[in-house]
Design brief:
464 residues; alpha+beta; 7-stranded mixed sheet; 6-stranded antiparallel sheet; 14 helices; 19 strands; globular
Amino acid sequence: MAEEKNFDENKANKMMDLYSRAIAALGVDTMKNLTQLNVLVIGMRGVGVETAKNLVLAGPKGVTIWDPEIAQIVDMGANFYLTPDIIGKVSRAEASVKNLSELNPYVNVTVHNGNLDDEFIQSFGAVVVTKILPKSELFRINQLCRTRKIEDKIAPSPFIMTITHGVTAHCFSDFGDAHIINDPDGEPTKTLVIEDITPEGLATISAKQHGLDDDDPIRLEDLEGCTIEDGQESIEKLNDLEGVKLKRKYEKYERKQGDRVIKGERQIFHKFQIDLSDTEYSWNNLSKWKGGGIVNELKRKSVKNFRSLEESIFNFAHDPFTEFLGPQHPDQGAWEKGAGKTLHLEFQTVLEYQEKYQRWPRLHNTDDGDEFLKLYEEINENNKKLVEEEKKAATVETIDKKRIKAYAWYFETELTGYCAFLGGVAAQEVVKKFGKYTPIQQWLHSDHVQLIGNEIPADALPLN
């Protein structure tokens, strides 16, 4: 059992000492919320154990791991907690729980050996899937996360899927229909000292540049006003007022270039207009500024809309870039050449493959590779018909047979590098549940097809 938590930012104790660096990175509020979160991790191969390890170190209330499959010798290649003496005797989850529990005394790490029934799934504040499951099961778990309720109010659990097959990886995040982001980047906010404010609300600051954008929300403090005249309000009413925004200030200029006169506008970086249009005040009825004043940058709140896994298999795009280029791929050159769409179709195809054959593609099996390629081509053609009907779907014009066959040949394998990468991504996505930092929206596909050849190696033989 985990030690009792006593999260109090105003007191010095072992727990606060342990989490001091995390608090510095995430903030007190996010860390406090995280210590009350229970997370389910499905799968305990390489990605699963990396994800669970990172989550336990992050410090949620509890991490439950689920993987009833008996540990095999092949699993030792990616799950660093497995040892030869437990192979064939206990499940992957049971073999990993002890070591995971020792990472953080304040996190309750448990194994679930039962079924993933509806009530069980919805008892968690976040669910991470790290092993491929049949299409219907993935859709069911995702929908349960989206429809989770607390006291009859919809309270979606983030559904995060991070899986790797050979030299390919897929990431998917779903935070519900309307996820609120309070701090999109985690960067410190700016604080500026006011040197002057004109009667029209044009502010001059002591810094050379304010570094803010139009309509950025700001909070004013410590403004001092002159004597109030008839019909006026004190400018001090603006202190801590909500709805105050900033407008950049520009000036016109003229300069000669030979016989020509060039006219234009340029920004004045140390001045800006204080915009009161969203408040009850206007500069016409405020007293004059006397002195003092601090400008505090506020983070813009935003709402991100996420689609279900079932819908986003077809409707994957959230912006013009992904509409045109396909789901994101970290290799910019590969992404521009359509790798995102190719890998997205691979994921769609493998789900249909399992549904058709009731198994996944087998390691180094040329027949499975040929069948997978054939099904891929069929799905691509069907998707093209959907697009012709003005529906959403991923399609490719040129089929990269090497990429697609390699996906099937090495589907059963995990590379430790990808496991470490995806484990970090999954744990970070869980932390974003509380509105700090921007989640992946929604797909990220990656591969390194250059690591493998065009044929199955002749000496690739199984051990034992």
